[in-house]
Amino acid sequence: MEIVNSTASGVYTSEYKNKNMPKQTYENSVKKEIAETKNKVLGMGFLHEKNNTVHYGMCAMYAEDYSEDNPVIKVTVTKPNGKEEYHININEVNPRNASEIEMFALCNYADAKGFGTGGTFGSWQTLNYYRDNASHNGYFEMTNGTDSFKSVKQDWMKMVQTMMKDYMEAGLFKQSLDGQGLLGIFGKYVQAFV
């Protein structure tokens, strides 16, 4: 059974839509998805060089071959000798054994997909202050180098859990609760490696 609006305005509206509105087809859906991901900056951050005196910019974007089934994030690092690009497949990131660049990509992807920490400055910044404090407490190694940020693998999940405990014991409840958001992100990916 078909319901048709046969009033003058209904006929005009139907004809207008038929002539001027694109039909929702697979092709239009794919074009829309490409438009939403192409050249979209997911987040920015800084890579610290030794002695913490020089900082290089990092930018996370969807890679050209990105899809929901193939969530690849392109991270561009601006160094003195030019830009370097790295492609990180989010499905291959294990928060229990990940490099800094992998976690940067994961945090920015989580924010873009709506399951990040929800903080004003994003999940990467939240993870950064956890990492800085853990480093000062002797729990975590700061990579501080343009080579080690992609090669040194660490247990980010354990670091967050340890810092949550420290924050709670110090009465810093908000900081401790921020860790729950980070663990929520990590939990989505660590299961694939158990």
Key features of this structure:
4 strands; 16% strand; four-stranded antiparallel β-sheet; alpha+beta; 7 helices; globular; 194 residues
Characterise this structure.
The protein is an alpha+beta fold and 194 residues long. It has one domain. It is 46% helix and 16% strand. It is built from 7 helices and 4 strands, in the order ααββββααααα. The protein has helices spanning 8-20, 26-37, 100-113, 123-136, 148-151, 156-169, 173-190, and strands at 41-48, 55-62, 72-79, 82-89. Strands 1-2-3-4 form a 4-stranded antiparallel β-sheet, with helices on one face. Strand 3 (72-79) and strand 4 (82-89) form a beta hairpin. Helix 4 (123-136) packs across helix 6 (156-169), helix 4 (123-136) crosses helix 7 and helix 6 packs antiparallel against helix 7 (173-190). The longest helix has 18 residues, at 173-190. The model is unreliable at 1-14 and 24-34 (pLDDT under 50).
